[in-house]
Amino acid sequence: MALYRKYRPASFAEVVGQEHVTEPLSTALDAGRITHAYLFSGPRGCGKTSSARILARSLNCVQGPTSNPCGVCASCVALGPGGAGNLDVIELDAASHGGVEDTRELRDRAFYAPAESRYRVFIVDEAHMVTTAGFNALLKIVEEPPEHLIFVFATTEPEKVLPTIRSRTHHYPFRLLAPSTMRGLLERICAQEQVPVEDAVYPLVIRAGGGSPRDSLSLLDQLLAGAGDEGVTYARALALLGVTDVALIDEAVDALAANDGASLFGTIDKVMDAGHDPRRFAVDLLERLRDLILMRAVPDAAERGLVDAPGDVLERMREEAEKIGSATLARYAELAHAGLGEMRGATAPRLLLEVMCARMLLPSATDAESAVLQRLERIERGIAAPPPPSAPTAPPAAPRPGAVEPPSTGLVYQRPSQRRTADVDAPAREATRATPEPEPTSTPAPAPPPVPQPEPVRQSDPEPAQMQQVSSDRPDAAAIRAVWSEVRAKVRERSRTVEVMLSGATVQTVDGSRLVLGHDSAPLAKRLVEPRNGDVIRAALHDVFGGDWEVTCEHGAAADAATPASDAPVSAAQLQAKAPAAPRFSRPSQARAVPPPSGPPAPDPDDIPPEAPDYPDDPGPPPPSAVDDGYAASPPPTTPEDEEEMMAEAAVPVEETSRVDPDDAAGELLTEVLGARQIDG
Question: Where in this protein does the record put region Disordered (predicted)?
Fold first, then answer.
């Protein structure tokens, strides 16, 4: 006989792990508070049908209703484990008898009085399989049954039971057994069977059974059936249950902790050579990662029963938990879970398993927050990791006030941003150098009136050293951006982790002693303002600028925060170059809106240059005066307003008398302008 049938409980006191159900039922039976319908729900193999039989046995016992049947009366013997059954206790399988005709037959039989017992009990197993029409046929009798009739519905999906039926029952939810409770049950049964079992076998059976007593006892029955004189060994259990060897799991975890790709892929090759299913290996690896996460979060997880494993395995797991950080374990678990989803129905599961392991070895391959946290954790723990993609480095620090610049020793590299800043001052300096001094002449020649030029912006005189010292105590945002690399260098001396987090931060604003940073990652922005990290940044600012600082970090950086504004003076030539050019053509509608140009128009390149004077004292012809005819250049592109104006003009009707033939107009033009004469014939 199968173990789950041989050791089926005969009373509520023998039911294991369901005290939340058996205790209220026992109390109700002893007090005589019996209802006409019960609903037992829960996962498969957790004792629903066995409890329904115990309830029927307790109701029909000679000494009952009682929670402790005598076990010697005819009803108790017939309804006990291995009994022949009773005519008044009918068990139906709704999976094969769930139609409306079956329920109508059950309804007709239910009205008959019991033959030899106190109650007629109908146990409907898999009640969720009854059709809606079948439930409707039972509704009336379930709502108002005879006094001798009791229904017990057992189901794994109570939400599929018709609500009108479910609302008329007492619902008792069953649940799976805890690992510690299941282990005690298995050990008692093995002791009664007198078969030795190694301690490492019980966790394998419990995990394979999934908390179901019936499934776990079925697996244990299989192991006991194949046990030899030495009993049930760990190797035999691994082979029969198809579980991955713990040694292979340990090798995989050690390879991940050391970031050793050769060892990890070698372990996968061993798994495939041993004939294991890649998906099963991924499941076992995920379970190990779960145990390691719990052991890092709860140091006494084994004592609390959160992790169930033999003593030697627990010791290895503690060592593994010390090697790998919590963020890394969480990322590994996420990748293993995603890999299991990809392996479902795949034709090449080994390939997907190797891809999953490759992702674990390359945390910098993605920009996810978990990958960033894992890289930070590796830096804190001092573990070498693959280099992340190269990022643009911060601009070099600007010289502090009063610092002496070293002499130039050749070509100096400049960044594009520095070149743009330097190019602003270059035209003014070049214009100053290129202006030659006037050569003295005996008779100065008259020159055209000079064109007024905007006066160049003069730089303010440098402040005294004392004023610079006062202003340097509280620098502005531009000053901090200029020496930001120096601040990061000071931070690196205290904490490399904080310096890495500052690589994506930019200076936003400065309000007195309050520095506001911006970061494009919300989690890293929160970590930067933690007390430990904030103290490092404040100490670095104190070393560079002095004084006490308050540092805050916000999510999101302004587009112009990373590039400080240039305070270089703007020369007159630059102002003239940046000024918008005067339009070369304008329509009447545009001429009303656009003001006339302030200066004389630029000479046309097609104009004939003036003649040079033959003698030094000959001033030569005066320069031609510009004639503003309104058509100095090519017309601008047509705007929608111009098109509307032209369409309105074209829509005005023209009188017949004012129409001119194009040929006649051309002839008149040739005659008047060129003196042409029309030739007849």
Answer: 383-477, 564-648
**Which amino acid, 132?**
T
Residue 368's CATH number: 1.20.272.10
pLDDT in tens, 5-45: 899 999 999 999 999 999 999 999 999 899 999 999 999 99
Residue 385, Cβ neighbours under 10 Å: how many? 15
Count of structural domains, the chain: 3
Examine the fold and report which residue of 555, 572, 594 is the final residue of a domain before the chain moves on: 555
pLDDT tens digits, 181-225: 999 999 999 999 999 999 889 988 998 898 999 999 999 999 999
- pLDDT tens-digit profile of 504-560? 888 888 888 888 988 888 888 888 888 888 888 988 888 888 888 888 888 875 434
- Give the DSSP per-residue string, 631-667: BSSPPPPPPHHHHHHHHHHHHS---STT---HHHHHH
* CB burial string 490-525: b at 16+ within 10 A, e below: bbbeebebbbbbbebbbbbebeeeebbbbbebeebb
3-state secondary structure 267-315: HHHHHHHCCCCHHHHHHHHHHHHHHHHHHHHCCCHHHHCCCCCCHHHHH
What residues form DSSP beta bridges with 153? Answer: 39, 124
For residues 82 and 171, membership in a common domain is answered with yes
